[in-house]
Design goal:
Isoleucyl-tRNA Synthetase, Domain 1; elongated; RNA-binding
Length: 519
RNA sequence: GCCAGAGUAGCUCAGGGGUAGAGCAGAGGACUCAUAAGCCUUUGGUCGGGGGUUCAAAUCCCUCCUCUGGCACCA
C-alpha cells in the first residue's frame, strides 16, 4: 500500500482549557488534510491529548477521582471541542491509551539497549510545596526564591538522561540540507542559529515513580516513569505503529498489523505546531527518532499566536476570544474563514471584533453570499430555475481560480488560496453588472444572451462550492443543495468548467451568510 | 546584551536602482438581479532620520532612531 499523506497537530494538555490558539492550529491542519484528500491523496489526520503528568495527578486527587477517570471526563470536553470545529481527524490519540504506551516503552527499550540513555545524579534546589526543582530563572534579582515556592531544600535525585547532545551536528546538517524541514524560513533560521551557536545538552527524560506515579513506567526500571518528551512527542508515531505501520513496527520489534495490509503513514508529512514548542519538535523529536533508527518527519510547520485587540490574551483580564462562542453566534464557517483568511501561516495574528465583522459582511455575506443569491435568484426568476446550455465566457476565470487554488494548497498557502477564490467571486460580481441580465430579461430578443450569462453565473457558483470545500464545512454543501445537485464532490477536479448540466433544475436560493444586526 | 527581521497611503501590507502599488476605510457617480448587497470613478505617501555611491535610490552602502521575534532543556 502506498504511503498516505500524514498530518498531525500538537496534542493538548488535557488539563487546559480549549482556546483560540488550539482552534486555529487544528483548523489549519484540518484544511491541509482536506485539501490533500480533495487532491486525491489518501490522507491521515491525527490530533489528541497529553494526559500524563503531575498536574493531572494532583488535580484528580483534589477532586477525589482517579487520574484516569479525571482524564476521561476532560477528554470528552476536548472531543466536543473538536466536533465543534468540524475537524476531519481520522483518529484521536490519548497518551493514556495502551496502544500509545506500548510504543513509548518500545522506543525507550531500544534506546536503552543501544546505549543512548544513562543514569545520573542531579543535585539542586527543590521546592517541597511545588514538588519541583527550581532553576536560576526561578530566583528573584536578590538571589532568593519567591515565597510561592514554600520551603526550598537542597536535594539529590537520580534520573535517566537521553544523549541529545551527540546529535547536534548531524541535526544542523539535516536542517541545512532540507530547507522545507522547518517552515516558515525564519523559524528554520532560529533553530539553525541555535544549533550552531549553543551547546545542546542532554535531556532528562524521567521522574522517580515515587514522586510522579501518573506516567508511563520505564520498561527496564519500574522505579521511574518517563517524562513529557518521550511520553508526549511519541504520539505522532505511536498511533501509526499501533496499526502495524511497517516503517515503525518493524524497526521497534512491535507486532505487525492485525488487519493486513497495514496502512503506511510514517514518516509524517507535516507536524503543525505553535511557535512555543518549535524546539521540541524540530530538535528533540528528530533526534529521538534518529537515535532509534526511525525516519524523520518531513516538515514541522510552525504557526504564530493570536492576540486580541493588540494585547496578549489572558483569562485573568477577560481579554479572550472564545471559539465556541464565536461559532455559536456566527457559524463554524465564518470562524474558520476568518482565522484562515486573516493570516498567512507563521505570522502572529490579531483578532478584533471589527475585523471579524468586516470580513463576515464584506467577503462572506456581500461577496460570496450575495453572488450566489443574486445568481440563483435570477436563474429561478427568468428561467424557472432550469440551467441553460453550456457557455464558456467565464471559463478562463474559473480555470484560473482552480489552477491557483491547487498551486497554493499544494504549498499550504491557505490564505493565498482564499484570495484566489475570492478573485473569482469579484470577477463574477463584476460580470453581473457588466452584462446586466436583469436588463436582458426585459428584452425578449436577448433571450440567448441571457441564457449565456445565467449559465456562466450558475457554473461559477458551483465551482466556488467545490473550491471552498477544503476550507468551509457548511457553505459548499448549502450551495450544492441550492443548485439542486446533491452530494458535494470530494475532489477539486470537479471544479473544471462546464460540469453543470444544461436542463437541470436548481433548488431554492437562500442567503448564505445572513446579515446580523447589533453584533 | 547577542542574533535575526521590520519601519511605504488613516489601517493591513506588496514592491526592491529608472513616472510610488493593492485590499480595506474615506469621497463621488450610474444602476436595481440580490442579503440597501454589487459595479464604476476617485482623494490620500518628500517610502523612519541623516549621510554616501550613482546620470538616477523606497530599492545599494554607512550611521542613528524605533519596533518585533528568538536566546531552549537547565532533573
Amino acid at each position: 500500500m502506498s504511503k498516505r499523506f500524514y498530518i498531525t497537530t500538537a496534542i493538548d494538555y488535557v488539563n487546559g482549557e480549549p482556546h483560540l490558539g488550539h482552534a486555529y492550529e487544528k483548523i489549519v491542519a484540518d484544511v491541509i488534510a482536506r485539501s490533500r484528500r480533495a487532491a486525491g491523496q489518501e490522507t491521515f489526520f491525527l490530533t489528541g491529548l497529553d494526559e500524563h503528568g503531575q498536574k493531572v495527578q494532583q488535580a484528580a486527587q483534589a477532586e477525589g477521582k482517579t487520574p484516569q477517570a479525571y482524564c476521561d471526563e476532560l477528554a470528552e470536553v476536548w472531543q466536543r471541542f473538536i466536533a465543534k470545529l468540524g475537524l476531519s481527524n481520522d483518529d484521536f490519540v490519548r497518551t493514556t491509551q495502551p496502544r500509545h504506551q506500548r510504543f513509548v516503552q518500545a522506543i525507550l527499550s531500544k534506546l536503552h539497549a543501544g546505549g543512548q540513555l544513562y543514569k545520573e545524579v542531579y543535585r539542586g534546589s527543590y521546592s517541597t510545596k511545588e514538588e519541583t526543582f527550581l532553576t536560576a530563572k526561578d530566583r528573584r534579582p536578590d538571589g532568593s526564591f519567591d515565597p510561592i515556592f514554600g520551603e526550598v531544600i537542597e536535594l539529590e535525585e537520580e534520573n535517566y538522561y537521553f544523549k541529545l547532545g551527540a546529535y547536534q551536528r548531524w541535526l544542523a546538517e539535516h536542517i541545512e540540507r532540507n530547507p522545507s524541514f522547518i517552515q516558515p524560513a525564519h523559524r528554520r533560521n532560529e533553530i539553525l542559529g541555535f544549533l550552531k551557536n549553543d551547546v545542546l545538552e542532554d535531556l532528562c527524560i524521567t521522574r522517580p515513580a515515587s514522586r510522579l506515579s501518573w506516567g508511563i513506567p520505564l520498561p527496564f526500571d519500574p522505579d521511574y516513569v518517563t517524562y513529557v518528551w518521550f511520553d508526549a512527542l511519541s504520539n505522532y508515531a505511536s498511533i501509526p505503529a499501533s496499526f502495524g505501520d511497517p516503517a515503525l513496527a518493524g524497526p521497534l520489534g512491535l507486532p505487525p498489523s492485525a488487519s493486513q495490509p497495514a496502512p503506511s503513514l510514517w514518516p509524517a508529512d507535516i507536524h503543525v505546531v505553535g511557535k512555543d514548542i518549535i524546539r521540541f519538535h524540530s530538535v528533540f523529536w528528530p533526534i529521538m527518532l534518529k537515535a532509534a533508527g526511525l525516519l524523520l518527519p518531513l516538515q514541522v510547520l510552525v504557526h504564530g499566536w493570536w492576540q486580541k485587540d493588540g494585547q496578549k490574551m489572558s483569562k485573568s483580564t477577560g481579554n479572550v476570544v472564545d471559539p465556541v462562542r464565536v461559532i455559536d453566534d456566527w457559524g463554524v464557517d465564518a470562524f474558520r474563514y476568518y482565522v484562515l483568511r486573516e493570516l498567512d501561516i507563521g505570522q502572529d495574528g490579531n483578532w478584533t471584533h471589527a475585523g471579524f465583522k468586516s470580513r463576515y459582511s464584506a467577503e462572506l455575506a456581500n461577496g460570496l453570499g450575495n453572488l450566489v443569491n443574486r445568481s440563483l435568484s435570477m436563474l429561478k426568476r427568468y428561467r424557472e430555475g432550469v440551467v441553460p446550455p453550456v457557455s464558456t465566457e467565464l471559463a478562463a476565470d474559473g480555470e484560473r481560480a482552480l489552477t491557483e487554488t491547487r498551486a497554493h494548497l499544494s504549498q499550504n498557502h491557505l490564505q493565498a488560496a482564499l484570495q484566489s477564490i475570492w478573485s473569482l467571486v469579484a470577477r463574477a460580481n463584476q460580470y453581473v453588472d457588466h452584462t446586466a441580465p436583469f436588463k436582458l430579461a426585459k428584452d425578449p430578443a436577448q433571450g440567448r444572451r441571457l441564457d449565456e450569462v445565467l449559465y456562466n453565473l450558475t457554473e461559477v457558483c458551483r465551482i466556488l462550492a467545490v473550491l471552498l470545500s477544503p476550507f468551509l464545512l457548511e457553505t459548499p454543501a448549502k450551495i450544492y443543495s441550492q443548485l439542486g445537485l446533491g452530494a458535494l464532490p470530494g475532489n477539486l477536479s470537479a471544479a473544471t468548467w462546464g460540469r453543470l448540466p444544461p436542463g437541470h433544475r436548481i433548488g431554492t436560493p437562500a442567503p448564505l451568510f445572513p446579515r446580523k444586526e447589533g453584533c
